[in-house]
Specification:
There is one protein chain. The protein has one domain. A hairpin with a 2-residue loop joins strand 2 and strand 3. It is 22% helix and 53% strand. Strands 1, 2, 3, 4, 5 and 6 form a 6-stranded antiparallel β-sheet that branches.
Length: 86
């Protein structure tokens, strides 16, 4: 499985982002390359101040340590993106 962090969206002092599973399938012949991709949300992250939490598609909630255990560096990546955009 390959995952990515979608760009965060700010709503007042709170930011939201999604961790998504990504798939890409490529097929080629002699004259062309055709690709099909899809992504599926795995976690929805919520950041406010220094606190990052998440909820998955089944309603289970996660704290920052649990998020980073499943998706290494996801919370630090989110915080870095938010700092860069500020």
């Amino acid at each position: 499985m390959s995952w990515a962090l979608d760009p965060p969206v700010r709503v007042g002092p709170v930011a939201f982002a999604a961790i998504v599973e990504t798939e890409l399938h490529l097929k080629s012949d002699r004259s062309r390359l055709v690709g099909v991709g899809k992504k599926r949300p795995l976690l929805f992250l919520r950041a406010e101040g220094d606190t990052v939490t998440a909820i998955d598609i089944n309603g289970h909630s996660y704290d920052a340590d649990e998020i980073d255990l499943l998706y290494p560096d996801a919370t630090s990546d989110l915080k870095a993106r938010l700092s860069a955009a500020a």
